[in-house]
Amino acid sequence: MKTNVAVKRVFSSFESRLLLRTIINFPRDVFDSLSGRRDPLVPPHGLWFVGGEADYKATNDEFIGYFVELGGLQPDDHVLDVGCGIGIMASRLTSFLGNQGLYDGFDIVRIGIDWANRNIGSRFSNFSFRHADVFNKHYNAKGTLDPNAFSFPYDSSVFDFVFLKSVLTHMRPQGVAHYLREIRRVLKPSGRCLVTAFLLNSESTALINDGHSSLVLTHEMGGYKVLDPQFPETAVGLPQVDFERWCQQAGLALKPPVHFGSWCGRQQYMSYQDVLILC
What we know:
Elements: H1 2-10, H2 14-35, H3 56-69, E1 78-82, H4 88-93, E2 102-107, H5 110-121, E3 127-131, E4 159-164, H6 173-186, E5 187-197, E6 199-200, H7 202-209, E7 219-220, E8 225-226, E9 236-239, H8 240-250, E10 254-259, E11 274-278
Parallel strand pairs: 1-2, 1-4, 2-3, 4-5, 6-9
Antiparallel strand pairs: 5-11, 7-8, 8-9, 10-11
Helix pairs in contact: 6-8
């Protein structure tokens, strides 16, 4: 993580970091293309701007399991992927959702949406991707829309299942509270939502302070903590008591238990990030 922070200091814009990645991975991507090794539903290495490339298949299967076992996802559900990136989870969902199932995803990085529409949406008519020009210093510093007021581009009460995988971990509290209200708006009354987060409580804070955490979320930003105060959205830790209050204010019920993650150095955990089910 220290390396990632150093890279952001040198290549401060998302565009410059993506260009660097594209250049570094160019020979590998050319070889994969010529040899036919690349899965057409998975982006080339140079465009992979989200984390977890090395083990994405295992992670995709892991989260499909959470969607089904914890969130009750069904093959004929209407699904919303908030912060869908370049379509990594969508590529796995193409083999899970049936002909009656629908997938919608939106993201603030246009290049990811364009790639997903060309390579996934063009093959699966029930999969759709939209760009939302929302400001985020880490991913979309030129964004014109305020994350604290952005309205999801969908009608109310239309989704059976909504998920946000590693999205709230890059957002500040006011934006998180607003997104929770939007989630409640677009969910059907019987809908479910899975979110991941870095929740700050007595256990995670003690582990961070004792040097066990892989994320040193110690920089106080006025009610929340971040990894890098120069680029706050790189990784954001949210107080658990506040998060639960925002859920309640949004009209969302937290389905117990919270499935705490290993990110802070826990010895007992379910995944890397904390996983919560809301309904």
